[in-house]
Design a protein that fits this description.
Elements: E1 2-7, E2 18-21, E3 35-40, E4 43-53, E5 68-69, H1 78-91, H2 95-101, E6 109-117, H3 126-132, E7 137-139, H4 140-145, H5 149-157, E8 161-169, E9 174-181, H6 185-194, H7 200-211, E10 216-218, H8 219-226, H9 230-238, E11 242-249, H10 269-283, E12 289-294, H11 300-313, E13 317-321, H12 327-339, E14 343-346, H13 352-363, E15 369-372, E16 384-390, H14 407-418, E17 422-426, H15 431-439, E18 443-447, E19 458-463, H16 464-469, H17 478-490, E20 493-497, E21 506-509, E22 526-528, E23 533-535, E24 542-544, E25 557-560, H18 564-574, E26 580-583, H19 593-602, E27 608-611, E28 624-629, H20 643-655, E29 666-671, H21 677-683, H22 687-700, E30 708-716, H23 719-736, E31 742-754, E32 757-766, H24 772-785, E33 793-798
Parallel strand pairs: 12-17, 12-18, 13-15, 13-16, 14-15, 16-17, 19-29, 20-27, 20-28, 26-27, 28-29
Antiparallel strand pairs: 1-2, 1-4, 3-4, 3-5, 6-7, 6-8, 9-10, 9-11, 21-25, 22-23, 23-24, 30-32, 30-33, 31-32
Amino acid sequence: MYAEVIVDVAAYPIDRPFDYSVPAPFQPLIESGCRVKVPFGNRQVLGFVTALKNETEVPLEKQKPIGELLDIQPALTQELLALTKWMKRHTLCYEIDALQVMLPSALRAKYEKILRIVDKSVVLPPAVQALFQQKESVELQAGESKELLSTIKRLIKEDVLTLETAVKQKTAMKKVRIVQIESDVNQLQTIYEQVSNQAKKQKNVVNWMIAHAGKRIVSTDLLKQLNISNAILQEVIKKGAATIEMEEVYRDPYADRTINTTNKLALTNEQDIALNEILRSYNAKEAKTFLLHGITGSGKTEIYLQAIERVILDQKEAIVLVPEISLTPQMTNRFKERFGSLVAVLHSGLSTGEKYDEWRKIKRGEVNVVVGARSAVFAPFQNIGLIILDEEHEGTYKQDDSPRYHARDIAIWRSEYHKCPVILGSATPSLESYARAKKGNYTLLTLENRPKHQALPEVSVVDMREELKNGNRSMFSIDLAEAIKLRLDRQEQMVLFLNRRGHSSFVLCRDCGTVVECPNCDISMTYHRHNERIKCHYCGEESQVPTICPECKSEHIRFFGTGTQKVEEEIARLFPTARVLRMDVDTTRKKGAHEQILQQFGEGKADILLGTQMIAKGLDFPNITLVGVLSADTTLHLADFRAAEKTFQLLTQVSGRAGRHDKEGKVIVQTYTPEHYAIQFAQHHDFVPFYNQEMMNRKQFAYPPFTYVVLIQFTHEDVLMTAEYAHKAANWLRGNLSSGAEIIGPSASSISRLQNRYRYQCLIKYKKEPELPEILQQLTRMYRTDWMKKGILMSIDLNPSSIM
C-alpha cells in the first residue's frame, strides 16, 4: 500500500503529492486526511495523506516508508481535502498552505533539532559532556546558547554525534491527575488504623476518604479542600487508600462564567417571512445563498438563532462567523444562552490550547454550533445544515496572506457540498453581494423595521469647517460637547468613535516641516503618549520621542493629528466626571481584554466607550443614547475605489449602536466634507439610494461589481529591481490576456515601502477571461522558478478587499 503525501515544505518544486510506502502495522489504521511523519531529504517532516493506492511509479530502490502515523482518526475530512484542491486553484496558493489553514495552530508541526550521541566509546570534550549531563540526546538549541557549535559540528563530521530533526505537535492535550478513592470502606478503615497517631494529617485524609469511598476527585482540588501538601497525599496513596490516574480534560474559556438560559422571542411579520424562506430552502436541501438585509437592530440575530434551533433538532450542525474578535463575546453569549454546551468558540483571542480543545469538541461531534472569526469556516463538521456570515460586508473575512481566501466563498462552497443554505447578514451589504441579490444569484430578504418599531436614531452632521471659522479648535464640536454633557447629567451612556489609535498621527518640525517617518516604511510614526514613544503601526518599529528635529536640529517639535489616546485626555479635561473606557488595539492586547471592557461598560461602570472600528458594530446596550463620530473623513479619502462604501458602512453601523431599546438615540457625525454623498446617505440611513449612486460611479470607472479585479504586488529591497519585475509581469500579461482585460500600472503602491521592501503593483480588470486562472498559474510558475531566486516577492490577490 502507498500513500500520497503533501509534505510541510512550501516551495514550488515540492507543491505536489509524494508517494510513500505504508508499513504493515499502519495499513489497517491509515486513512486520507491523517497526519504523518515522513523522511524528506535528510530530515523528518510533517505530511498530510491525501490519497491511498496500491501501486506507485517510484522505483523500489527510491521508495521510502512513512515514519510515524500521528492520527488514528483523520484530522481532515474528505470534504476538506476536496476543498483544499479548490483553494489551491482559486487562490493560487501552495497546497500545504491550504491544508495548514484548516487546522488549529496546535496541530501544526514544531521542528526541533536533536543532538544524539552515536559513538559512546569516544570521550567528549568537557563542555559537550556537561551539555549532555548523562543523557543520550539534547536539543541543539542548548548547544547554541553555550557557543559550542564549532565543536559540535566537528563531532558530527567525525560521526561521534548525529543531528536529527524531531517533529512535534505544538500543543498537547491537557491532562489532570485524578485521585480514585478505594471503594472498599473496610479496607480504608484498616488503613486508618494502621496510620500512626503522630501522622495526624494522614489520618484526617484517610478519614475523609472513608466518607467519600469510591469517589473520583481532581488532585489539586483535594489538596486545596483538605489543606494538605502533595507529599502527605502520596503517603496515603502508597498505603493503598487511593490510586492516581491521568484524565484528559478540555481547557474551557467559559468555565468561570455563569451563563443564563434564554428562550426564543416572538418574531415580527418580517422576521417570520425571512425565517420561513430560509427553512423552506433547508427542508428542500437546497444550496441557496440568502442576503439578509436588515437595518441595525432589526433582529437578524434572532432569525439566526431560530434557524439554528431547527438545524439542531435534526441533529445537524451550524457555523456562525463574525468579523471582529470584539463581536465574539457578545455573540457567543447570545448563542450559549440559547444552546448551552452545544456551542464551541473559535477565534484568535483564545490560547492555542483552548482553540485546540474547542476544535476537538467539534471534531468529535460533541457540539452542534461553532461561533468564530474567519477561520471557523473550516470547522470539521460532517453534517452541516446552515452557515451564517454576520456583517458579511466586512473586509476581515478576506485573508491578507496565503491562502488569500474569502470566508464567503468557502461558505458557499461548503453549502453546495452539504446541500444547505448560507445566510449573509448585514445592515450595509457589500455592493457585490447586493448586486448579486438584485440579479437573482442570491435571494434577498429584507427587514425594514426594528422589532418594537423603535425609530432609527436621528443623525446630525456637523461641518467642522464652520466650527473652525467660529473659533472652536477643539476636537469636539459645540453640538457634540453639549450632547455629551446632557447624557452625563441623565446618567446615560455614549459611544465615541475615531478610527485612529495612538495620541497623534504624526510628529512634525514647525521650522523645516520634517515629519518623523519610520526608518523601515514610507509612513509617519504615530505618537503614543502613555509610554512617550513613537511607533510605526505597520512594522512595529518604535523609538523615543525626538526632542530636536533630526534634520534642522530645531527644538520646535510638535504633535499633529488626533488618535484615541488624545481624545481620552481631552474628555478628561472637558468632562472631568466622565468615566471612560478606551477600546483599541493598544488596550486589548491581553487575553480576554475585549470581553472585560464590554462587560464593564454593560454593567454601567463607564459613561463613555471610546474606540476604533472594533466598537462600530454588533454592540447592543440598552442605555446607549448618543453616538459621536469624531472624524467621518478618516476612510473617505483613501486611495481605494471602496473608500466611499467603507465610510458609508462604518457610519451606518456605528449609528446603529444608539437607541436600540426604549430610549431615543442620537448620532452626531463630525466631518470636513459634509456634502459627500456617502455621508449624506448615511445621515438618513438610506442604503438603496447610496447603492444606486455608488453603482453609477463603479460602472463609469469599470470597477466591481461591473468587473472583476486582480491585484498583483511585487516587493524587493531594491526599488529599481522591484519596478523592473513589475513591468516585466505587466508586459507579459498584456501579451497573453485578451483585449477585453485592462491592465493598470505598474505603479508604486500607496505605501511605497514597508519593512525595508519597496512595493509596486498592477491591477487587472476584466469581465470575462476564461483563461485567466491558467495564465496566472503560468505567471506564478515563472516567478517561482526564476524571479523568486533574485529576492523578488510576488503576491496575487483575486478580488482583493483593498487595493492599497
